[in-house]
Design goal:
The protein starts with 15 loop residues before the first strand and ends with a helix. Strand 13 and strand 14 (330-335) form a beta hairpin. It is of the alpha/beta class. It has a 7-stranded mixed beta sheet, sandwiched between helices. It has a 4-stranded mixed beta sheet with strand order 1-2-3-15. It has a 4-stranded antiparallel beta sheet with strand order 13-14-17-16, with helices on one face. The chain has 12 helices and 17 strands.
């Protein structure tokens, strides 16, 4: 008999009932150190007092009115995002998947309104993940994502990751945009080198096409900059954001330049819940916290500490771990053992990690993790590796 909850998840046998900072507490009382943060969502940890206060205050005032009316909290968050990024304008969604849908529409409408309706093709890359909507799975293109869900939405050109010659050859008069994650998350924590991001920006400018960045997982301070593309010193035309921007409350956004968004006029897109007062009240606090230079400096310092200790972990367990890669507090441990065995061994040691492609486990702790908790994390990962050895 089918479960009352559609069985699309292979869930671990864990039921968490409370969160405190970097910790999750199981129904039986066990305390798990959370290096997953809800897959890079709980940027400020669990039950952060400032987020709880913002949500509680807003919940006592107003939950929802719809986008038929002005929403002051939405305007405040949009103003913060415009102030701190390349963007001139923001549309709020509930998730990264919804952000992908709008990014695709926005890019195509841009060229349509510029008199080039034939420009509909968006170039994407192997190993990418852009959500599980019709556009998202078509953009990723992998058999794992698309099998059984045809016919797929057309207009996507899939290229090997890092193949510059293939990219140059693929651009033609139908090309609308290039869409890429500065750091692939589901693809196994694969950063795109700064030089490649700069090259992509130059290529887009040269051919008059748009650059769409998917920073759903790598954005909002995760790499030690507010957004990962800042390390390369470039700006996109359109950017998808979600996960960390709500600190655990469902919230996403599409950020864009005025030119890229010029085709999105009244009636061209909408959302019932997107940009609701609850989510935006929380998002304002997240932005005020994470955009602070002092906060980002701490993320970078802690990232260096964690990476140093992970190198020692790898050296001590060469039969289990191969290498560490990533940026900031978005790190991946490439495994020699099966990555799910490492994840499960971690559960036994009361530490949470997240599997990814290429036999990698992701380490995506709250950006507020402490030095002591980093020490504890490495001790527990070492114990998990000992069990596998």
């Amino acid at each position: 008999m089918i479960s009352s909850v559609l069985p699309t998840y292979a869930r671990a046998p864990l039921s968490f009932v409370k969160g405190e900072g970097s910790w999750l507490i199981e129904a039986d009382g066990r305390r798990f150190l959370d290096l997953g943060a809800g897959i890079a969502v709980n940027a400020l940890g669990h039950a952060h007092p400032d987020l709880v206060a913002a949500l509680s205050e807003q919940a006592g005032a107003l939950w929802h009115t719809s986008n038929l009316y002005e929403i002051p909290q939405q305007q405040a968050l949009a103003d913060r995002l415009v102030e701190h990024t390349f963007a001139d304008t923001v549309f709020f969604t509930n998730s990264g998947t919804e952000a992908c849908e709008l990014a695709v529409k926005m890019a195509r409408k841009h060229h349509y309104d510029k008199g080039a309706p034939e420009r509909v093709e968006i170039i994407t890359f192997d190993g990418s993940f852009h959500g599980r909507s019709a556009a998202g799975i078509a953009a990723a293109g992998s058999e794992k994502m698309t099998k059984g869900f045809g016919p797929l939405l057309g207009g996507f050109v899939h290229l090997p990751f890092g193949d510059h010659d293939a990219l140059t050859a693929a651009i033609n008069d139908k090309t609308c945009a290039i869409m890429v994650e500065p750091v692939q998350g589901e693809g196994g924590i694969r950063p795109l080198p700064d030089a490649c991001l700069k090259g992509l920006r130059d290529l887009c400018d040269q051919h008059g096409i748009l650059m769409i960045l998917d920073e759903v997982q790598c954005g909002v301070g995760r790499t030690g900059k507010l957004f990962a593309h800042e390390w390369a010193g470039i700006g996109p035309d359109i950017m998808m954001v979600a996960k960390g921007i709500g600190g655990g409350f469902p919230l996403g956004a599409v950020l864009a330049t005025e030119d890229a968004a010029s085709g999105m006029t009244a009636g061209t897109h909408g959302s019932t819940y997107g940009g609701n007062p609850l989510g935006c009240a929380v998002g304002c606090v997240v932005m005020d916290t994470v955009s602070s230079p002092a906060f980002l400096a701490e993320v970078n310092r802690k990232a260096g500490l964690l990476r140093q200790k992970l190198e020692g972990l790898i050296a001590g367990h060469p039969d289990v771990f191969e290498s560490v890669r990533g940026s900031g507090l978005m790190l991946g441990l490439k495994c020699k053992a099966t990555n799910m065995d490492v994840v499960n061994a971690g559960y036994a040691e009361e530490i949470i990690t997240v599997p990814a492609a290429d036999n990698v486990i992701r380490l995506l702790p709250p950006l507020t993790i402490t030095d002591a908790e980093i020490d504890t994390a490495v001790v527990r990962l070492s114990a998990a590796a000992d069990a596998l050895s």
